[in-house]
Amino acid sequence: MKNPENAVELFSKGFNCAQAVFSTFSPSLGLNEQQALKIACPFGAGMGRMQGTCGAVVGAFLVLGLKYGRYTPEDEEAKEHTYKLVNTFTNKFLALHKTINCRELLGADMNTEEGQRVIKEQDLFRTRCLQYVKDAAAIVEELI
């Protein structure tokens, strides 16, 4: 269970949730860490701080795509396999956390002063998001 701990370490260093998950797996899949960090950067905080789909979840989807995704238009089998894995991942994450929505997972709107206050006072990035990063990486590790 090395990958979940690596993802937690990256997140703890200040990388966003998507970066932490994606860049943990990318070197073993042929993409260097710096490239992975740059690719995943926009997806943190629920897609650029819009608090949609959780960045840890998106980072996991990127890993599944990098490993199994299709790269030719006729490879329908790879596309279907990747979609199946995305759905399996999502179901496992939902079983643990009931949602994949960043705002719901965090329990605060990071785009408001009140939300920022709650996040800071309750240390939500550490007390909640760290767990989402760890769980996303663990599920990916199980699937690949």
Structural features, described:
With 144 residues, the protein is mostly helical. The protein has one domain (2-143). Helix content is 72%, strand content 0%. The chain is built from nine helices and no strands. It is globular. 35% of the residues are buried. The mean pLDDT is 96.
User: What is the total domain count?
Assistant: 1
Which range does the strand content fall in?
under 5%
Q: For the CA atoms, what is the radius of gyration? A: 15 Å
Outline: globular
Q: What profile does the largest beta sheet have? A: none
Briefly note the structural class of the backbone.
Answer: mainly alpha
Low-confidence stretches: none
Question: Number of helical runs?
Answer: 9
Order of helices and strands: HHHHHHHHH
CA distance, first residue to last residue: 13 Å
Which range best describes the helical content: under 10%, 10-25%, 25-40%, 40-55%, 55-70% or over 70%?
Answer: over 70%
Mean pLDDT: 96
- Give the total of beta strands: 0
Short description:
Helix content is 72%, strand content 0%. The chain has 144 residues and is mainly alpha-helical.
